[in-house]
Design brief:
Glucose-6-phosphate isomerase; 452 residues; alpha/beta; 5-stranded parallel beta sheet; binds 5-phosphoarabinonic acid; carbohydrate derivative binding; 5-stranded mixed beta sheet; 49% helix; glycolysis
Length: 452
């Protein structure tokens, strides 16, 4: 089986000779500290050997719950935010038909994502859309108390019970949450929902290979065994026994840290040439942003969909401040073939492309952009993915996870916490007069009055 291939030559050429190799010791130490559980945040390392330790029985259990929802639902709403939704969405969109949201999917239930915002119109439109649908809900929240998700679940639970009756609703509502703590667990126990546990030692953004990602992906009709197999193979390819020079995650962690610390490259742009990968980049942004952005440090993770964004962000990338580098997700082989037809009149002047595949043009756009951006001073990392299927997406997921763990350690932060996320929540709860936030409510009202 092929592997995803990392090419850092067009990035290391922006660094002093030997710069990437100079990280070898640090990267190897970081990799070992993950393995030995001696790194900061070592109580959140449950993802490290997840792919190789998932049992066939567990996969079968997830598949059987997925089959029940597939049988009983036209639509399944995945309620979750951050790590509790981005991974599932990334995989489902990467593997699914780009137009199933318009045409419906005859074989599989529609998967709809909610609980990731507090848009009133979004929720109104969602509940309207669901009015005549047989729908189910997966309530995903590790803490079980996240406002966006809990609010959405409250609405959807009621609607599901009203439309299907309490007994039938019980069969199509699943909770994925902590084993004991949180409101989502309490509700699931009281209502008798099927539940899956998010292990204590797996943080949200590292949880896509737990039921958090696997259940929605299986409901959408994708092969979760192949996904796990891909991840397990990448686990092997990035183990402590793999030399630095042959370990793609080690090299990725090294080159991005070198670009950041030695070449002033503060922004990494994740680029794709397949619109289906938009949410892969969203997932990656959360993984790296929440893991590395702390203690006044961290590369800012951004993303662009090319060639679309070459007509918007392309100018900035080519000639703006030279503080960026690109990481390109390049898909070697598309799943379908479209040939440009010949046109006798050739009014559009495109006959020079007649008989060529669309992907040939896309690949030339990719190569041309790479050359132009490198000439313009943008280091370029390339990840070549043989094709878009479950197996290679599994490889990609684990590659980014392990590289993130290593990279955060090299940066000198704890990649597994997210203390900064609490600041907005505290203010929001104070402003909404949430019980328990009385002192904060008083303080924030005084501050707003003083600022008025
Ligand atoms: O990575 C993380 O830990 C976060 O992004 C969480 O996934 C997100 O905040 C959602 O939290 P919860 O699953 O507790 O609702």
């Amino acid at each position: 089986m092929k592997k995803i291939i990392l090419d850092i030559t067009k990035a290391s050429s922006f660094l002093k000779e030997g710069a990437v190799e100079s990280y070898k010791q640090q990267v190897n130490d970081a990799r070992r500290s993950l393995e030995e559980g001696t790194c900061p945040g070592n109580d959140f390392l449950g993802w490290l050997h997840l792919p190789s330790s998932v049992t066939p029985e567990f996969i079968n259990e997830i598949q059987s719950v997925a089959d029940t929802l597939r049988e009983k639902c036209e639509v399944v709403v995945v309620a979750g935010i951050g790590g509790s939704y981005l991974g599932a969405r990334a995989v489902i969109e990467a593997l699914g038909n780009s137009f199933s949201w318009l045409t419906g999917d005859k074989k599989n239930p529609m998967i709809v994502f909610a609980g990731n915002n507090i848009g009133e119109d979004y929720l109104y439109e969602l509940t309207e859309y669901l009015k005549d649908k047989k729908f189910g809900v997966i309530n995903i929240s590790k803490s079980g108390t996240t406002t966006e998700t809990a609010l959405t679940f409250r609405l959807l639970k009621k609607q599901c019970e009203t439309q299907r009756g309490k007994d039938e609703a019980r069969d199509v509502i699943v909770a994925i949450t902590d084993a004991v703590k949180g409101a989502a667990r309490a509700a699931a126990t009281k209502e008798g929902y099927k539940t899956f546990v998010i292990p204590d030692n797996v943080g949200g953004r590292f949880s896509v290979l737990t039921p958090v990602g696997l259940l929605p992906i299986a409901i959408a009709g994708f092969d979760i065994k192949a996904l796990i197999q891909g991840a397990a193979d990448m686990e092997n390819a990035t183990g402590t026994d793999v030399p630095f020079e042959e370990n793609p995650a080690a090299l990725y962690a090294a080159v991005r840290n070198a670009l950041y610390a030695q070449a002033g490259k503060k922004i990494e742009i994740m680029v794709n040439y397949q619109p289906k990968l938009h949410f892969m980049s969203e997932w990656w942004k959360q993984l790296y942003g929440e893991s590395e952005g702390k203690d006044g440090k961290g590369i800012f993770p951004a993303s662009c969909d090319f060639t679309t964004d070459l007509h918007s962000m392309g100018q900035w990338i080519q000639q703006g401040e030279r503080s960026i580098f690109e990481t390109v997700l390049s898909i070697e082989k598309t799943n379908h073939e479209v040939l440009f037809p010949n046109d006798e009149e050739n009014l559009d002047g495109l006959n020079f492309l007649a008989g060529k595949r669309v992907d040939e043009v896309n690949k030339m756009a990719e190569l041309g952009t790479r050359l132009a951006h490198v000439d313009g001073g943008v280091p370029n990392i390339r990840l070549s993915v043989p094709e878009l299927n479950e197996y290679y997406i599994g490889q990609l997921i684990y590659f980014f996870e392990i590289a993130c763990g290593i990279s955060g350690n090299v940066l000198g932060v704890n990649p597994f916490n997210q203390p900064g996320v609490e600041a907005y929540k505290k203010n929001m709860f104070a402003l909404l007069n949430k019980p328990g936030y009385e002192a904060e409510s008083k303080a924030i009202q005084e501050r707003l009055a003083a600022e008025a």
